[in-house]
Fold this protein.
Amino acid sequence: MRTINVREIAGSNLVSRPTAKDLLDFVKNTGTPEVVLDFSGVEFASRSFADEFYNLFHLNTERGFKFTMINVPVDIDAMLKAVASTQDGSGKDKGVDANIYRPKDMNDLDACFSTLLI
Amino acid sequence: MYINIFEYICSNELCYTFVYSIAALVAAFICHWSGTCCDMKIKEKINMNHAKLSAGLSAAFRICARVADSPDKVDEIDLSDVEFVTPTFALPFLVFADGHGKDIYMSNVSSYMRSIHFESRGVDSGAMELTEFSAFIERYSQKRFVPIVRFPAQKTRISDRDCILSAVENILVKQTGWKSNVTHGIKYMLSEMADNISEHSRSEYGYIFAQCYPTYGYADICLGDAGITILGSYQLANNKEIKTDIEALKAANKGISTKNLPESVNRGYGLITSREMLVRGLGGQYLMLSGGAVYVDTPNGGGYIEIPGGLRFKGTVIALRLPYHNDNFSYLDYLE
């Protein structure tokens, strides 16, 4: 089993979907069927990264690939748990019932903004 | 060794001002003698009071509406009465100018507008080496604004994009003194918005511009793209139920992904969680313009607004008003 330092491969800020793909490609290129991903030194992971990471790595788990994670910072652990819990699309629908305004001119538009206190 | 002479000259603030002044004079001279352009001179009395996030946007709408109504191929925007512009003015205006297909020439630009690189339509960070851009942006660490930065948005340049935005974030942290709890929330929001530009807009580049107001305890950050709009993105995904810009804004803020794929059910959370984090978590304000509609959300409520007169922007702009401090905030509380 090989330990891979995520920070050395992908940096301390994991902010985009392609970064997760790059990480998976690196892991696959090692030719090792079982790896340990060491997250020490990683400071931040975006939701997009976490979602892509979750899907790519779990998809490959189903294909016989095994991985474990160590030294996962609290924030990143919370992010991975968040994307895992929303894979069914639950929890959306916030703010959709707001009013619709159709101002007749630019002065009316300013009045709309004032009404909305913005 | 390849040297982009124009970028090299423009790396010096004084030379930059000089070059653009000369360019403006040459443009005015050509326009005058050719007699083919600059027929329409637009001078709008605008209220750029930053106390309201919408003030700049409203001013941009008025000017863009006059440009849209003008029959001329070239319009001159006379900015002699305008000393200061907010991010909610600058980015919508630039997105409009990029997408309208007209030559829009700005005259009597103030020194502030030059310093934010408004006249040159942003600093082209994608044409710079990353070390060069880092050194350039570092010069703003003691100022109260981040100039308009044009960053690459293509999927082939994600790494460059992330490095550029990370450098901008670092400058903002220096300018505002945000604590790590707020900084992490802002990193989350900006990364989601930049990712949306790269994933959905089909725009080659995005814009970012920020202005800090330390006396009032908030900063305004705008991100934008001159892309296909949110409605265009749904249409490209063959979504036939979403037909208007307001419906598209509603769908995006409901978390309906434009990725028309079975595995995309978990997409679309970035926008919702960012908005909740900003408005409910930090007590900030959120404004989103796409096509011909605007969505706003504040701690006092929100709404969708159709821009009057059929005015439409070929792109999307998101504006965030971010309070400097909130000790009780943790972005982890808003991940869902």
Notes: Residues 1-14, 34-38 of chain B have pLDDT under 50 and may be disordered.
